[in-house]
Amino acid sequence: MSKIKIHEIKSITALALPLIAAFLAQKGMQFIDTFMMGWIGSEALAAGALGTSIFMTILVFCMGTLSAAGIFIARAK
User: Fold this and answer.
1) 8-state DSSP, 52
2) Which pLDDT does position 72 carry in this prediction?
3) Euclidean distance between the first and final Cα of the chain, in Å?
4) How many angstroms separate the CA atoms of 26 and 3, rounded?
5) Which residues have a Cβ under 8 Å from the Cβ of 47 and sit 6 or more positions away?
6) What would the pLDDT profile of 4-36 be if each residue is shown by its tens digit?
7) Are 44 and 37 in contact (CB under 8 A)?
């Protein structure tokens, strides 16, 4: 490999490692939350799943709205 490709791989890896760590931490917290709700009971587990699905629906809608707003702002400028 050429020197430029090695430099690019190192740069991308330096940017990706914090994102990978944050993703693994988030999934770990979700696993522990699910595990703890399972100990409480099936009703708590179902309520957690319902709350998560409602939250994710609202989150995706808001992210879509914000990304569209950015496009409109850029077009207006």
Assistant:
1) H
2) 87
3) 42
4) 35
5) 37
6) 788 888 889 999 999 999 999 999 998 998 899
7) yes
**Three-class secondary structure of residue 51 per DSSP:** helix
**Across 46-63, average pLDDT:** 92
Residue given tokens 């995706």 in the structure block: 60
Sign of CA dihedral 1, 14, 60, 77: negative
- List of residues 6+ apart from 5 with CB closer than 8 A: none
Question: Where residue 55 falls among pLDDT bands split at 50, 70, 90?
Answer: very high
HSE at residue 5, side-chain half, CA atoms within 13 A, is: 2
Place of tokens 């699910």: 34
pLDDT at 1: 59
CB atoms within 10 A of CB 45: 17
